[in-house]
Amino acid sequence: MSKETRRKFFSSLVGVAAGATGALANISPREALAQSGEADLVLVNAKVFTIDDRQPRAEAFAIKHSRFLAVGSSHDIKNLKGPKTQVVDAGGMTVLPGLIDAHCHPAWGGIEELVSVDCDLRSVEEIKAAIHKRALATPPGRWVYGFKYDDVRVREKRRITREDLDEVAPNNPVRIQHRGGHLCWYNSMAFALAKVTVNTPDPPGGRFVKRDGVLDGCVEERANDVFYAIIPSDSTEEQRRAGVALISKRMTSAGLTSTTDAECPPEYLSAYQDAYHAGELLFRIYILTQGYAPMRVALESAGIRGQMGDEYVRIGGVKYLADGSCLERTMRMSTPYAGRPNDYGILTITQDELNAGAEDANLHDYQMGVHANGDVAIDMVLKAYERVKASGAREPYRPRIEHCSLVNPDLLARIKKVGAIPTPFYTYVYYHGDKWDQYGDEKMRWMFAHASFLEYGIPVASGSDYIPGPYEPMMALQSMVTRKDYRGHVWGPNQRITVDQALRVCTINAAHASYDENVKGSITAGKLGDFVILAEDPHEVDPDHLKDIKVVRTVVGGKTVYLS
Ligand SMILES: [Zn+2]
Question: Distance (Å, rounded) from C-alpha 385 to C-alpha 379?
Answer without folding.
Answer: 10
